Amino acid sequence: MSDPWRNPYTQAAVVLPAEPAGDGEPEPVTDPDAPRAHVWRPVVLLCLVSALLAGVLGGATGYAMALRGGVAGGGIPVGAGALDPPAAAARPPESLAGVVERVSPSVVTIRVSGPEGGVGSGFVVSQDGYVITNHHVVEGARGALAVVFEDGSAVPASLVGQDPESDLAVLKVEKEGLVAVDLGDSDAVAVGDPLLAFGSPLALAGTVTYGIVSAVDRTIQSDQSGQVRYYAAIQTDAAVNQGNSGGPLVDAAGRVVGVNAVIKSVSGEPASAGNIGIAFAIPINQAKRVSQEIIATGKARRTVIGAEVGNASSGLTGGVRLDTVQQNGPASAAGLRAGDVVTRLDHHPLNDAIDLVALVRKYAPGSVVTVEFRRGSSTQTASVTLAADAQ
What we know:
- The longest helix has 27 residues, at 41-67.
- The chain has helices at residues 41-67, 96-103, 135-138, 284-297, 330-333, 353-362; strands spanning 107-112, 118-124, 130-133, 145-148, 154-163, 168-173, 182-183, 194-199, 207-224, 227-236, 248-251, 255-263, 279-283, 303-304, 307-311, 320-325, 341-345, 348-349, 368-375, 378-385, 387-388.
- It is an alpha+beta fold and 391 residues long.
- It has 3 domains: 96-173, Thrombin, subunit H (Beta Barrel), CATH 2.40.10; 182-297, Beta Barrel (Thrombin, subunit H), CATH 2.40.10.10; 303-388, PDZ domain (Pdz3 Domain, Roll), CATH 2.30.42.10.
- The chain is built from 6 helices and 21 strands.
- The termini are far apart.
């Protein structure tokens, strides 16, 4: 620090500090460049040992807690070989998973014993034990019938009755706590509606597949075991395979709208037929009517129009020709005659004889349908009251 009062011309002087009092020994001098002692090594070693001890102690404590069930009972119980399965995730009732949860207890696997036995599907329609399935599922039953439920319980079943032409059958089981399905309205189904198919395809019980309504009133003819059947079916692209027969086709609200019955396949052999996205279900309105008749009388009535039909001759656009008309039958009573060409039935266009037969079978006896037909060069309409076959 400069001294403002110092004479700038005075020579500088060096002042030495006084020697400390003592025995006169000189103060030790330390070389600043000399290597220093490594004082940090003991500290690091102490940290490593502490961390090691903490790890061992923590591991031992965790192991002991696991053996005792862990925190809040979440560990592995003594003697268990694996973790407990996680609880099923909750889903809203209106979701597809919610619909599956609601419908599955009503869906059954049907096992037919005997030489021509096999596996099919069905569903409970009443709490007193009635089960709907396909006729062709139980057709070859020569032994016992068993119904297996979602929980794995199996009970014997008795055959109440069957209708080969509609391909429907009704079984009866005795079991407490049965849950019946909700039946929908198949006449309200529209192309594009979402659908779920339940059943046991290839004996895989509890299988659910998803698709849409591909077509309604799809008229098909099926010949199984010499039995010719006509369907005005609900077509779906939901995966359906052998073993799905008799299972329910369900809408997005969980209501049964059809009974899975037939699949279309590129294979000519039924044993090798598989899903190609074209499956057919019997409309539930028809299945409900037939099953109620089977329960009441042991058999079902067949709906007829009272005419023998054939395809219209070449050169005409569509239509079904009435080859003969039964005297006093429904067609005759409505004024139809042999040679008339029916082009529409309740607004459904008809292209061949299968269309007319399948659509008539869909209706209940006593139903009134509007028929559009050609006679010569004129087009006419008539109201026909369908009837039950005399058989």
